[in-house]
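I trust your eye. Have a critical look at both lines of this record:
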Amino acid sequence: MGDKTNGHPGAAGRAATADHPASVRNVVLVGHSGSGKTTLVEALALTAGAVNRAGRVEDGTSVSDYDEIEHRQQRSVQLSLVPLEWDGFKINLLDTPGYADFVGELRAGLRAADAALFVVSAADGPETMAGATRMVWEECAAVGMPRAIVITHLEAARADFEDMTRTCAEVFGGDDPDAVLPLYLPLRGERAPDGHAPVTGLIGLLTQRLFDYASGERKESEPDAEQASLIEEARNRLIEGIIAESEDETLMDRYLGGEEIDVKTLIDDLERAVARGVFHPVLAAAPAAEDARQGIGTVELLELITGGFPTPLERSAPDVRGRDGKELDIHACDPEGPLVAEVVKTASDPYVGRVSLVRVFSGTLRPDETVHVSGHGLTDHGHEARALHEADERIGALSAPFGKQQRTLTHCIAGDLACVAKLSRAETGDTLSAKEAPLLMSPWEMPDPLLPLAIQAHSKADEDKLSQGLSRLVAEDPTMRLEQNQDTHQVVLWCLGEAHADVALERLRSRYGVQVDVIAHKVSLRETFAGKSAGRGRHVKQSGGHGQYAICEIEVEPLPGGSGIEFVDKVVGGAVPRQFIPSVEKGVRAQATKGVAAGYPLIDVRVTLLDGKAHSVDSSDAAFQTAGALALREAAADVRIHLLEPVAEVEVLVGDDYVGTVMSDLSGRRGRVVGTEQAPGGRTLIRAEVPEIEIGRYAVDLRSLSHGTARFSRAYARHEPMPAQLSERIREQAQDVP
């Protein structure tokens, strides 16, 4: 880190390969939208010699971009893999979208990686990192994933590296800000007439070497006296931070005793502390000039990745179970071990078909071999979101993606990643194992999609293709959930936000040829009786020949919530023959399903059959079903009918600065706050009960209210009566429908 050569760049045009897990580094790039992740990947690819010029998302030439939707939206919307070679190492860079709607792609990247690189823009304020970026940091910390920070956009007029470094220490350091310290300080050139001084190089705090990029190539030299004096304070703090995390307990005593610690010892300790996830270095990066071969800080970053980030050998595989459900000890990342691989992403290619991005945790994956695919899908807040499925499939071609190219691989060893073509039965989250020894990896949790999108086919031709298109869409993206609502008869695609929904609609149209219309989403309302009532159902028809004759008298009374429909027989003397009593009940329940006021199902009532009449010839099952339905409708006509709306239990985790705003907004949605409690990191957990009709777009609105720093969950609680004014409006709307 700072005292090495430029390494041996990989050759452009061929696939980067690895023959041993120790030579692999899997790194996920994390950061908010616009922080410069994709630009940084381009710069690293250029420095490593994987490309001859840096591309751009905007013009469709990015090496981490192979989706036409990204070209049109001019932003990343999916996880992409960019493999590089540097100094004898294979580096798998996993570029993730920064927009919150695509957090599922981020979770997939975290599952496939062994270390995370947090990308932060020097031109942004601290509030930018206070939301989703900090939450991801905490997720990484919970599993002990090593992390480093790179500050980008140093060329911006408002860029302030020192201020952003302090912010990173405050936001990410928590109780130990000295665990987040810079390894390099940027050096600026002469000031332009506008007062801006461009960054031209870096100075290493440990090596005290100057790395000048002004010529477009990295040149190393001794700093002058003035430059050396600038780094003294930062260097001392860095050395103390490294020694504090050192496994050598004597090092601190030696340092405090005045001993000059060897730079190599410091670098070795630094690399071990980074790999253990207890020290988080801060680096700086700026894009290369038009004719430059290297961007500022890219060599230093590649050195950190290869020297400080852990190998796949240092990561334990997720829990693996056999067909009998017993946990197996397959933690060693051994290319000769049993095959255990996981599909971390699925996508559709118009020419190749389905392409699966696979992380191999054990064994070696080879083309043309048959593997067992098993999956329980991904968990949805602790619940299985998909049914168990199994199949034997033949592995197609293995490849390494590079932009729009797929470069052929002969094999993929434990610890590495590859794309597999034509795994038609495999979905995201599925396990690949040997055919003769099926295994299943523990599932990973994905965020619950909370924005409903009700859709219908645009035409009859679209209707024929809609089901298949939707099933493929949700198989590729586990953060989408498909609902066929039996109450409202709507097809609902649950998404993470508006941008997520837009991408779903665009993929349906462009990838699967399905045009859909978005319609208003309905919630599942219910009806119930406000008081006791009675009704008489009379169905008597004589039209020559066999007639219809059935009369029944019922009493209806409300029951507590959750009781459903209770039917009681109190007929005496055989007024209604025994064989027709189930017919009355069937008619009552059928009418209850259709509703008695606004067309919503009737619930929570007791229907008591008291009396009736029958005819020895003309009475029938159908006649008494009709009479039962008529009796229920008559009873409903003489009493007030409550419309019941579903109420959700909502939990909102929000920064303390926004608690008042969020609670006020919940009250405006007819919500009842039932409790609050303090959460770590200056946040508050708010618990409330809110009618579901009021939170259809809460996923979007909460993001706006909290500037992207809050998140929420919801769960059905019960149905409650709606306010009279709102209930009456819905009844009127129901009557207007032909």
